[in-house]
Structures are given as C-alpha cells and as structure tokens.
User: Which sequence fits this backbone?
C-alpha cells in the first residue's frame, strides 16, 4: 500500500498457488444442542482448554459456534485426504491481542500444514444470535525462483 | 454387534435427509447430509452406546462415511 494518509493506493500482490480460502457456517442452537446432549464430553473433544476459557457469559454458545466454524474453515484450507486424521483440538482458535482471532495449529494439523507448504493461516469469525460463520485464509510458503533453486 | 444400534444412533444424531433403513451399508452418509458437526454428535453417541472412545487416529472423514465404515471402526475398537 502506497501513498499519503489521505490518498492510499492499493498495490496488487500476487496470490500464489499455495494460497487458499475456506469458509463455514454453524447454527448456534446446534452447538447448544450438542452440549445439552453430551455435556462436557462434547466441549472437551472439540475445544481446547484455552478456547473454553475464552468463551463465557451470555454469548458463550455464539462464541463456541464461531470457533467451531473457524475450525471447519481451517480444515477446508488444510484439505486433508479423507483418511487423514485431523482432530478438531489440533486447530485452536484463540483471541488475538488486537481483538480478532488467531489460529494455532498443533499435532496433525500442524504437520498437514507443513507438508503442504502452508506458512500461516488467518481466520475471521462473526456471529449473530442464531448463526456463526468463519473465513480462513492460508498463506503459502514463498516459492523459490529458478535462480534460488540453483543457488 | 447390533447393527440396528448404529442405525439408531445415525437416525437420532446424523440429521440425514432419509432414514437409515433406506440405506445400505455402503451408502455415502455425507451425500445424504452428514455434516462435520453432526459427525461429532454421531461419534459421541456411538461412544455412549457402545462404551468405547474413538482415538484420534480414527477421527477422519472415512470413519463416518458409511454404516459399514462405522461398523468396521467399532470392530477395531473391540466391539463384538
């Protein structure tokens, strides 16, 4: 981005073949129903302790639904083969200092990202009272130029 | 293993577009509306019904893809 504060010029940047986008939507009452049916077993199989600690108060169901959508959106950018295990707890959606959310991958999710040349995954969450949604964007590792390959 | 118990869990928790009595063992449950969230519910309900716990290595899409694949996973977990 170039230019003065009152005249910004957006400079197009190439999105390489490793960049990916994924999205997901979750009905908040479905998450509440899972908790009602399975209790803490549902929470602890899906969310990490840090995620659970970050969700509370009158909008807890919405926050949990948004994080579930975030995990699913991240799965869509990781593109696991159907026989590759990917526990939901290995995709952590945490509150970032700036107010949004950040993605922390571990275990199988981290290994899958590394194997596919994914350097970073960003996520954006949103919710209303009845639905939650998420968009994830994966950024690929820099591609080596021909000269760098042979350096 | 009572296969009917698997189908009962699916009918109760999978939110499929049809009853499982209309599906054979190889029918693709995702094609009939199984979502990722519903598959979590199915997994937890199966654990309760058969007193097992699905380990992380079985937490992939293929495990819950068909009635037959669910039966195979439960067999692997020691359900007779």
Assistant:
């Amino acid at each position: 981005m170039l230019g003065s504060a009152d005249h910004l010029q957006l400079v197009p940047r190439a999105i390489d073949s490793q960049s990916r986008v994924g999205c997901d939507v979750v009905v908040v009452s479905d998450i509440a129903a899972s908790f009602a049916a399975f209790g803490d077993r549902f929470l602890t199989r899906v969310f990490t302790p840090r995620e659970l600690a970050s969700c509370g108060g009158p909008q807890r169901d919405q926050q949990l639904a948004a994080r579930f959508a975030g995990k699913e959106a991240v799965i869509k950018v990781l593109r696991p083969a159907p026989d590759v295990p990917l526990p939901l707890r290995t995709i952590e959606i945490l509150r970032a200092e700036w107010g949004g959310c950040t993605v922390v991958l571990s275990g199988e999710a981290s290994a899958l990202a590394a194997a596919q040349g994914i350097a970073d995954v960003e996520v954006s969450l949103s919710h209303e009272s009845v639905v939650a949604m998420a968009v994830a964007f994966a950024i690929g590792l820099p591609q080596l130029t021909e000269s760098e390959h042979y350096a | 293993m009572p296969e009917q118990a698997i189908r009962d869990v699916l009918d109760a928790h999978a939110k499929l577009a049809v009853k499982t009595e209309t599906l054979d063992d190889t029918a693709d449950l995702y094609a009939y509306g199984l979502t990722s969230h519903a598959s979590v519910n199915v997994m937890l309900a199966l654990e309760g019904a058969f007193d097992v716990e699905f380990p992380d290595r079985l937490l992939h899409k293929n495990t819950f893809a068909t009635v037959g694949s669910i039966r195979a996973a439960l067999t692997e977990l020691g359900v007779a």
